[in-house]
Structures are given as structure tokens and as C-alpha cells.
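In practice, a research group might receive sequence data for several interacting partners and want a quick structural hypothesis before committing to experiments. The following worked case mirrors that situation: the sequences arrive first, and a predicted assembly follows.
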Amino acid sequence: MYHHHVKLILLALGGLLLIGGASCLSQQSRHLCGINELSTASLRLSPGSEVVFPGDDDFGAVTLRWTNFSRPTYSVAVIPALESDVQKLARFATACDIPFLATSGAHGFDTTLGRVKQGLEIDLSRFRAVSIDATANTLIVGGGVRFSDMIDAVYAAGKEISPLTTSPEQDHGTGPCVGMLSPTLAGGVGRYSGLHGMISDQLLSARVVTANGSVVTASATEHSDLFWALRGAGNNFGIVTEATYRVFNLTSRIIVNADYAFSPNASAAIIDYFASFGDNTPPKLALILFGKYDANTKDVSNMHTISATHPSPTHLSCKRGTQLSLWVNIVYAGRLVELQPLLDPLLAKVTPYRQNVSEIPWSQMLYYNFFGATPSAPAACAAKGLDRDIYGGAIKSYDKREWNRFIANFSSFLRGADEASRSSIFFIEQFSKVKVLQIPDEETAYPWRDITAHLYIYVNYGHGDEKSEVLYSARKLPRLRALKKIWDPENAFRFAHPFV
Ligand SMILES: Cc1cc2nc3c(=O)[nH]c(=O)nc-3n(C[C@H](O)[C@H](O)[C@H](O)COP(=O)(O)OP(=O)(O)OC[C@H]3O[C@@H](n4cnc5c(N)ncnc54)[C@H](O)[C@@H]3O)c2cc1C
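A structural hypothesis for the assembly, expressed as C-alpha cells:
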């Protein structure tokens, strides 16, 4: 079945010393580049490593991705066990000019990843260790860690970190299965950004395998130029094998997850509600609006949504079967009694046809969102292998007229859609930028601290056809390109939204 997903963000991310690139390879050593003859022995990988070829039983599982749309293809997948294995693989691939990708959660949807054709996958799934030092307030993770790997451990230590978000799609979400490093390296949009900044703002240091197979530590005090680039454009600079993050005492052990489903007649009131926060979404509040097909969408008789100044689209049906459902997810880093005054302005205007408001442990956040669409980490990871084509956009403020037009068009699209097209969705993420803006722009490569609601553009939410300026900003590109010449002169890391 073909699933066509539209993510619209309307507002506003050793052994073979072949150092020096393919040109340095002698004719004699060229035979070492045969990708189809690779073995742990030929690469001198550690005994715990594995080499998997397309004919092997587990090749499909090892190379499975969240989306098949414009996906990378591989002639071989290698599962390294040690950092030294990753070094050998990077050296080998760079020297032989073999397209390669290190993978963690395999949720990257950037279409430029599809330029890896018959390449080498470096599967980091054996780099998923997690350790916490509650006294030092640090979390150390392996480069292949997924969000679900560390959430419980962080919570058990009485700590928190900004987690990513999840979306329900075909009624099951996949967020917990997303790798932790890739979002971090792109900047990292998360619900706790109002409290702790971007996910990358919590990164303290990273061990990075560079294109020539060296390993360096990047932090504020070591290779600080690389550390700057890692926090916003990091997918283009190396393979992180281990990362240290700052964690924080829990703002509240118990938080609120509130989910509401509205008919499209509520759309004007919802967008007024989002817009009412202006640039000042409270730090503890995270709002997501998610639009999807729902055969059971229905009007609720007592709702009164049409504001005199901003009429909602007139031709939308209020009857059962309208089919576009607007889900509002609200996460609040505190108790319901504190959140209630922030909910009242919305609920005074519109009545959901379905709701679930729960006080939950912080660690359960990703599993409660959107009416519990993601029951568990294994369920999240089981939702891979579909065709998903994602587009993004970013805005700093809401244009009500555009919004109304969009809702009318999307609604009518869903009404006429076949079953596969009905799986199209859109969503808007509006998180507080209080802490994000406290960190000076020049401190990291991440360029879009002033976006009000993360309706992309931001590197990891990009489609793949955007200009580099749109993703990285004209202001950051000169320094990024200069650093690229130092750290990756062969441009081996050129498949995730490349900028050279
Ligand atoms: C359901 C879903 C929810 C999402 N939610 C958020 C969100 O809340 N906030 C947000 O900011 N983004 C979010 N994203 C976007 C996400 O940041 C990107 O899709 C990201 O690239 C996925 O990382 P991955 O490790 O799962 O993917 P992969 O496909 O494994 O990797 C993607 C890219 O990152 C590189 N990479 C992976 N691991 C490493 C590493 N250890 N060192 C160096 N490079 C590495 C890969 O080489 C590749 O270029 C979401 C995506 C999905 C599909």
C-alpha cells in the first residue's frame, strides 16, 4: 500500500590505512575497494562486528528505514562493534569514495539520503549504551541510541532532558524509535525547549570519527570549532560514537498530556489559540496541532467557533463525516491545576468530540501523546518501511487567511482522496523559545532560534530540495564551508542536506 504523508509546517530541521581519499590510492590497492568482497577479515574489524549482504537473511531488517521514499540503497551493511571499527569503515569508505551513511534510528527522511546508491551502511545499533551521573548531571549515550533507550534511565535518576516529539500517522507513532544523535546534530526541536533550549544546547561533548578515520573529542574546550558545527550541521561532519549531554532535575515528575480531537469547524479557534501566545509560549507549555483523516469526525452541537473578525471557511461541513480531524496535543511540564488556566481560553470556544487529559510520569510522555498512539518502544520501531514523503515550511507568525485557505483545501483533498492518499497528514509544532533565545546565536551552527512555531524549516525537517541558505542560513554557511574543508575535505559526509 502506498502511503503518502505530507508534513506541513506552516509557521514558522586500523587496519586499512587508506588515508587521504581515493586519489591517494595506488592502482595496486584499488582491489581493496571492492564493496562486494568486504568481510570482517578484509576490513580487520573486531570479532563482534558483522558484515551483511543483500542475499543474507537479516539484510532487510538491518537496512529497514522509516520511509522508503527516496531512501538510500546499500550493497553492504556493516554493524561495527567498537569505535575502532567505525574508524576503519570511515577510512575505507572515504579512501575508496564509496557512498556511506551511518545510521541510528533510520528515521531520516531527507530525500538527499537517496543519493547513497549501492553504498555502505554503517549501522550503529551496537552503540546504544546509556549511563547517567546524577551528581554531575550528565548523560552519556552511544552514537546509535534512540530516544526510547534513555528516557526511563534519565527519569529513574530524577532527571530530564528535552525529548523529541512523536506523531500518530496511521494511528501509531514512531517518535521513540528516532535516533538521538541525528536530531541533536541538526539542532533538535523538542517540547522542553522553553526550559532547556534546543536538544543540541544540552550537548556537552561528542566523540567524533572523522572522514579520515581519526577520532576526536569535540566540546567547548576541545576542537570547539567542530563542536560549533556539530550543533546544527553535524550530520555533515562525522560519525558520533558517543555523546555527553547535560541533564536537569525534573521540573515535575508528573506532567500533563492533553489530547483533543476537533472537527474542522474549530480550526479558526485553534489557530487563534496558538497565535494568542505570540512570541511568548510559556516555557512549560508545548502545543502540537495535527491534521488527519478520521472517518468518525463529527460536529459537536454546542461549539461556537466563528469569530467575527476571522471567519472560518464557510463551506466546511459541520456534519458527521467531515473527515478532517484536528488533533491538539498539549504537554505541560507541571500539574493540571497549573495548566487549566492556559487551557480555558481554547475550551471556552470549542468543544472536542474526543479528549484524553491525563497526569502522567514524565517518562511516559511519548507513549501518551495523541491518544496513546505509540503504546511502546517496540511498537514505534515496528512502524517502519512505508512510503513517506515529507515537506516542511517555517513561519514566525500565523496568517489567518492563509490558514483558512489551507484548511479548506486540505479538507477537500481528504474528501476526494483514495484510501492511500487519506493517510496524508500535516502538523504544526509550537514550543516555547524562552530558553532557546537565551543562548546566543553565534554559539552554535543552528540558525533558527527565533522561529515561533516549528513548522519547519530546520535541517532535519527539510525535504531535500531546499537551498542551503534556507536550511543553514546565509549567515552560518561561510563558517560551515570553511570548517568542512578542514574536517571533511573529500566531502565524504555529503548525503544529509549537503551544503558544499
Ligand atoms: C516520527 C519522527 C519524529 C521526529 N521528531 C523530531 C523532533 O521532535 N525533533 C527533531 O528535531 N527532529 C525530529 N524528527 C526528525 C529527525 O531529527 C530526523 O529524521 C533524523 O535524521 C532521524 O535520525 P535517525 O537517527 O533516526 O535517522 P538515520 O536515518 O539513522 O540518520 C539520519 C542522518 O543522521 C546521520 N546520523 C545518524 N546517527 C549519527 C551519528 N551517531 N553520528 C553522525 N551522524 C549520524 C545519518 O548518517 C543520516 O545522515 C522526527 C522524525 C520522525 C520520522
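Before designing any experiment, note the following. Residues 13, 66, 101-109, 124, 143, 164-167, 174-175, 178-179, 181-183, 185-186, 188-190, 235, 239-240, 460, 495-496 surround flavin-adenine dinucleotide (CB under 6 Å). Confidence is low (pLDDT under 50) at residues 1-30, 299-321.
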